[in-house]
Amino acid sequence: MPPLQLAIVGAGPRGVCVLERISANAALLGGRALVVHLIDPFPPGAGRIWRYEQSPLLRMNSMAEDVTMFTDETVRIEGPIRPGPSLWEWAEQVRAGEIRAHVADDLRDELTTMASTSFPTRRLASAYLAWVYRTVLDDLPGEITVIEHRARAASIDGQRVRLEGGELIDADALLLTVGHLDAEPDAGEARIAEFAARHGLAYYPAGYTADVDYDAVAPGEDVLVRGFGLAFVDLMLLLTEGRGGRFAERADGLVYQPSGREPVLHVGSRRGVPYHSKPGYRLQGEPLRLPRFFDRAAIENLPEYGDFFADVWPLIAKELTWGYYAELFTGHPGRVRLGFEEFAKRFAELPWDGDEMRALIERSVPAAEDRLDLRRLDRPLEGVSFGSREEFAKHLREYVEADLARRADVAYSADLGAFMAMLSVIGQLPALVTARRIDPASQVSDLDRWWHGFFSYFASGPPPRRLHELLALEEAGIVSFLGAEMRVELDHDRFVGSGASFPGSVEARTLIEARLPEASVPRASDGFVRFLRDSGDIADETVRGVASGRIHTRPSDSRLLDANGMAHPRRFSLGPHTSARSTAAFTRPRMNALPFRQNDAVAREILTTLSNG
Questions:
Q1: Is 70 exceeded by the pLDDT of residue 551?
Q2: What are the FAD-dependent urate hydroxylase HpyO/Asp monooxygenase CreE-like FAD/NAD(P)-binding domain coordinates in residue numbering (predicted)?
Q3: Could you tell me the pTM of the whole model?
Q4: What angle do CA 113, 115, 116 make, to 5 degrees?
């Protein structure tokens, strides 16, 4: 009997994680042989985003101890658990000679000095992911063979996949794990691009920063940058230290020494502030009980097709608030006036946003700085304006300095309690969609955009060092802050940037969108995704007439849905830009992480489908 054939398009962390789950669940093949074709022009394991061939300045925004590709005893799945080292444990074992792994010479110093709380370079992450891939290959059962294809998929006819070089692969099943969808400019970006071309200006639409060529950005020129998140942090480093500048440690803090090749970056965004830095401490109190208020039972009790802010947000906000105060009360009992058991009982009885809850918190938590204000957290510049750019810059510097101090001081570990509650919420969100407990329009505008943006801003920010560098660059005159509600006008032959935080504007001949493209099947730039779209084999997720831009998959089993809403029996897809709305392929250890549960479920579904013919 000929072996079964599976094509996995996308061999980054997600594709390799599913491969590991296919290996772990191989008993479902019933003894049949399986050939897995990994299709990706980039190295398996690391893929495009984590490949070694990128700037050594770019780092992960996760600590080494918070990155793993392996399941553990907390992961609730049907398949076997196969433990393995986190990135930090892997580094320790490599240093001790317990693991043999290829680590490039220019990564040896980092490997030697890295601590569990270090933020590794993406290059070192690449070495870990490459080792994970080789380990998965070494652990394959005899009936599974893997064939690498360092090429892009171009088209598919039935189940025959054609690669860009012309090679054909007859696949009994297809899994699409392409990560975030790259996209062509939207209507607004296209209008700006046309204006820029007409007037000889430079415009860089949304894209993955490490893949964009910024060489044409001239030294000393004023550049408008729209976006203050992780993409901006990468851009900031590439256009400063990446051009020969240096950060020097001084007694009074970090100082930037320019090379003279830097542009001047005028940055603004909707909030007008950078993402919060990652906390540098651990929880101090009792283990958190999560989820507590936003669990499966609570979701099932929500009204069908409810509104996010009216129906769902009160539960999520209560979960975040619970995580925060549970850590404050048990980790820092000297700063509260009520015993935790009594507070927890009263807290559980009250709605999140009501006078009684506010009174309970004010009575129990005397210091205003110890109270969680989610509205102020989300909009720190709301209702605040300044008479000049200099006044606003001083305020924003103080804001960033206060954030750095708070995220470095274990006295404020309650922030980490809220962070952990956010991770718990992320794990419950697919049930919200599957159970039809959110209106599609609210899902797209409020859940997909606002909530995920808020999560990234609070919980997925840069290493603290990056914000220290931001302050040093502002002090050196290389970065300038434009404030909240940033606006860009197309004025004659210039871009004009301004904001709501202070009067005045900045003219520039270059505009950079410092963000990833939003999910958009209609605007997908990947050739294989476009082919599937144009042939009607995949579609833009549409629920009750509302399109989200994501690849439409059936939430129950991750099968691809075509333009008519029909599930393909042998085609599957996983990733952040599918209906599953999953987070990163790797995650924190011992968190029962959603991606691991999805990976195991889709691997078992594929193997069962294949074995049943």
A1: yes
A2: 7-180
A3: 0.95
A4: 155
Peptide bond into 291 cis (omega under 30): yes
Per-residue pLDDT of 149-201, as tens digits, reads 999 999 999 999 999 999 999 999 999 999 889 999 999 999 999 999 999 99
Rounded to an integer, the average pLDDT of 476-491 is 98
Name the residue among 131, 69, 81 with its Cα closest to residue 101: 131
If asked whether residues 163 and 243 sit together in one domain, one would say no
State the residue range of the domain holding 339: 296-388+408-459
Q: Which pLDDT band, with edges at 50, 70 and 90, does 488 fall under?
A: very high
Looking at this protein, which amino acid is placed at residue 604? R
- Are 205 and 137 in the same domain? no
Q: Which of 419, 231, 192 is nearest to 326 (CA)?
A: 419
- Paired tokens of 300: 């099932």
Quick one: 88 and 101 in the same domain?
yes
Tens of pLDDT along 197-223?
Answer: 999 999 999 999 999 999 999 999 999
> What CATH number did the domain enclosing 77 receive?
3.50.50.60
The total number of structural domains that make up the chain = 3
CB of 64 within 8 A of CB of 118? yes
d(CA 325, CA 292): 13
**pLDDT averaged over every residue in the chain:** 96
Q: Are residues 229 and 349 in the same domain?
A: no
Q: Give the CA distances from residue 339 to residues 333, 352, 372, 415, in Å, rounded to whole numbers and listed in that order.
A: 8, 19, 18, 20
In a domain, 586, yes or no: yes
What DSSP line would sit under 315-367, residue for residue?
A: HHHHHHHHHHHHHHHHH-GGG-SS-HHHHHHHHHHS-SSSHHHHHHHHHH---
Residue 267 belongs to some domain of the structure? yes
Evaluate the CA torsion angle 379, 206, 12, 574 in order and state its sign. positive
Split at pLDDT 50, 70, 90, the class of 585 is low
Residue 21 lies in a domain: yes
